[in-house]
Design brief:
This protein has 17 helices and 27 strands. The longest helix has 17 residues. It is of the alpha/beta class. Strand 14, helix 11 and strand 15 form a beta-alpha-beta unit. Bound molecules: 5'-O-[(R)-(benzoyloxy)(hydroxy)phosphoryl]adenosine (OOB). 5'-O-[(R)-(benzoyloxy)(hydroxy)phosphoryl]adenosine binds next to helix 8, strand 16, strand 21 and strand 22.
Length: about 550
């Protein structure tokens, strides 16, 4: 046995890899392989339901055949093992077909979110030297074709743009599939399977290299904890490319168990409740602001939600008061999940008492997840005190993809990932998230790296300095506030112009500052650095209208 091959990123040392195999965590499975096995075991069971614009359902046999034909088509167009392909598709059946096709040929999907725009997509394509980019023609009123044309023009590696819908000057995805021929390449379980995006704390997002073996272990563990089996009908509410709806237990967990994945085009109750009723959905996952909206809409709904058995809530801190209201409002069980695309995922358990479920963020998936809670000097804090969460384990990466300098800060020398979260542990080992030490804003589960937005605003000639912070918000948990210091004698700027500047740079809309304030100076820390904590506490707790999903 060799250790995983991840030449572009640090990987698990041999003794850890051997331990994880010996423990039965890494079983030598691949994504392409398990789909083939499920299709052989129950070809006629429904794998995927895509309700929009017209209801489509694919059985396991159909999904498997489609993935194989798409894989053959990609290979025929020169997409090779190890090549990167940026996939930016909404919650449609094609998303699942495309990623399984890429898994089959050993090419790596790079999971972009539908909200990403020119800045992010341009970066993913150039940094990963992507050979292909897969898009819808239009989505949520946005023209993805012209964005793709712009990015293709300036990215020499990008040879193909595949489009779901009318392709314009690009290639229709529907023209790609062809009959599989010859002996296809078989990815190895320890190979990289895909690149996931980090929430990010730096000017550019980091890429997270996940292997077949490590990710499939997290699926198996999640399925066991959540009780996912062949009867599970999992509703994908959040963008399918995000780690939470993908693997906690998510659509990949549901497919691994031979269940059914129901794709939801939009997570608002008006769209999702009728789907829950019609498709007899049993399980779903959502971020806290959405859970609030569902909790408010549940009691008065005319739709039958009685099939719903379990709702997972995570991605950001879920307030205890809100957590207490969910079960009675929706008539189902609640599970809290505290996870990260880098690996570690914690769940409350089905047999936890109610208090534990509403007041903690759960236990790690694996007995081999190592947890340390430390002070600023990396010393363990006394049991029950809060501190920085460090972790290492069978499905937590040992380094980001092509980021050696950042890795030396984000990981300890002995391979623990510095999560940037402040937690404490209860006597039962359950983690409670108390806060965050990393410079990141968690806007209702959507992560914003202040530095990325600060760099854009700093580009304006009237701006002397800027600091972007998160301020408390009743619905989102946090919203973004940009403090701006103008240059002396510079043209005055309006808040709206600052927001427009960020939008026009072509970044995801959720990164545009919610608020802009002009100040003369930032609060300083003892050593003369801008005090983000000072800025956050300067801002009054906010109140917004409920978010529109
Ligand atoms: C999930 O993944 P990411 O990579 O978007 O974000 C990870 C970060 C964590 O480090 C933590 O800061 C925050 O999101 N977070 C939570 C939380 N769940 C995630 N903070 C407080 N309470 C929670 N329950 O967000 C993610 C990945 C897999 C499953 C669930 C969430």
């Amino acid at each position: 046995m060799t250790t995983p091959r991840t030449p572009d990123a640090p990987t698990w040392p041999r003794e850890f890899a051997e331990r994880y195999r010996a423990a039965g965590h890494w079983r030598g499975e691949t994504f392409g392989g398990f789909l083939r096995e499920r299709a052989a075991a129950h070809p006629d069971r429904v794998a995927v339901v895509d309700p929009a614009p017209e209801r489509r359902e694919w059985t396991y046999r159909e999904l498997d055949e489609r993935a194989s034909r798409m894989a053959a088509g990609f290979a025929a167009r020169g997409i090779s093992p190890g090549d990167r392909v940026v996939v930016q598709l909404p919650n449609t059946a094609e998303f699942i077909e495309v990623v399984f096709a890429l898994f089959r040929i050993g090419a790596l999907p790079v999971y972009a979110l539908p909200a990403h725009r020119e800045t992010e997509i341009g970066y993913f394509c150039s940094f990963t030297e992507a050979v292909a980019y897969v898009i819808p023609d239009r989505h949520a009123g946005f023209d993805h074709l012209s964005l793709a044309s712009k990015v293709k023009e300036r990215t020499p590696s990008l040879r193909h743009v595949f489009v779901v819908g009318s392709p314009g000057e690009h290639t229709a995805l529907s023209e790609v599939p062809c009959a599989p021929s010859g002996v296809a390449y078989e990815p190895q379980p320890h190979d990289l399977a895909f690149l996931q995006l980090s929430g990010g704390t730096t000017g550019v997002p980091k890429l997270i290299p996940r292997t077949h073996d490590d990710y499939i272990y997290s699926l198996r563990g999640s399925n066991e904890i959540c009780g996912v089996d062949g009867d599970t009908r999992f509703l994908v509410l959040l963008p399918a490319a995000h780690n939470f709806p993908m693997s906690s237990p998510g659509w990949l967990g549901a497919l691994y168990a031979g269940g059914t994945v129901v794709l939801c085009p939009s997570p608002d109750p008006a769209t999702a409740f009728p789907l829950v009723e019609r498709e007899r959905v049993t399980m779903t996952g959502m971020v806290p602001p959405l859970a609030l909206v569902w909790t408010e809409a549940g009691p008065g709904t005319e739709h039958d939600l009685s099939s719903l058995d379990l709702v997972l809530v995570g991605g950001a801190k879920y307030s205890e008061a809100a957590a207490r209201r969910l079960e009675p409002a929706l008539g189902c069980r609640l599970m809290q999940v505290f996870g990260m695309a880098e690996g570690l995922v914690n769940y409350t358990r089905l047999d936890d008492d109610h208090e534990t479920v509403v007041t903690t963020q759960g236990l790690p998936i694996s007995g081999d997840d190592e947890i340390r809670v430390v002070d600023d000097a990396d010393e363990d804090v006394p049991e029950g005190d809060f501190g920085h969460l460090l972790t290492r384990g069978p499905y937590t990466i040992r380094g980001y993809w092509r980021a050696p300098e950042h890795n030396s800060k984000a990981f300890t020398e002995d391979g623990f990932y510095r999560t940037g979260d402040i937690v404490r542990r209860t006597p039962t080992g359950h983690l409670v998230v108390e806060g965050r030490a990393k410079d990141q804003i968690n806007r209702g589960g959507e992560k914003v790296a202040p530095e990325e937005i600060e760099n854009i605003i700093l580009g304006h000639p009237s701006v002397h300095d800027v600091s972007v912070v998160g301020v408390a918000d009743e619905y989102l948990g946090e919203r973004t506030l940009a403090y701006v210091i103008l240059r002396e004698g510079a043209e005055p700027l309006k808040a709206l112009a600052v927001k427009r500047l960020v939008r026009e740079r072509g970044v995801a809309a959720y990164k545009i500052p919610d608020l802009v304030e002009f100040v003369d100076a930032f609060p300083q820390t003892g050593i003369g650095k801008v005090s983000k904590k000072g800025l956050r506490s300067d801002a009054a707790p906010g109140r917004t209208v409920p978010p529109q999903f």
